[in-house]
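Title: Prediction job returns without error message
Component: structure pipeline
Severity: low
Priority: P3
Assignee: unassigned

Description:
Job completed but the reporter wants confirmation the result is attached to the right record. Sequence as submitted:
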Amino acid sequence: MAAQAKAPKSGQHQVVLDEESIASHKPPIPDIAPGPGDNTEEIVKAIGEFRKTHTRAQTEQLVHDWYNKHDSLLARATSENQRISDRESARQKVNAYGYDNYRQAQANYESDVRAGREDYQRIRENAMLAGKIQQSLSKVWNQLRSQGMDFDWFKLRCGNSYCNQ
């Protein structure tokens, strides 16, 4: 039985990860780089390379899909920050009276402090992400416009609305 378990089994596929297999799964337009780096030049270059071998409609569709992905990330971060702010406002309106004892009130207070710290950290992360996406989309939008690709659907989001309507 041990020999059978070690024997190679037919019909099983092996996945080999190398530069070629990784490159074949990369999207034509790279995502906006997380963190402090700026890859907008790489993004615009990739769009330009795609444009050389595809029609305007194909290029526009590719850019539109890429834009929608990043715009939805921005919308989610903004929306989550709004929900956190609303929750914090509701938490502050709750009356601190009505507890059966001091320990119950103290436990609730400590829970609120922890939740407030976690909310603050999440709001900060979302704001950094939103700023990064807004800045990158703005740079890409300006570069595309300068190359004659002024898409009417490419809007820059500011909060829950769009800045360049």
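Comment from assignee: result matches the submitted record. Residues 144 and 150 are 6 Å apart (CA to CA).
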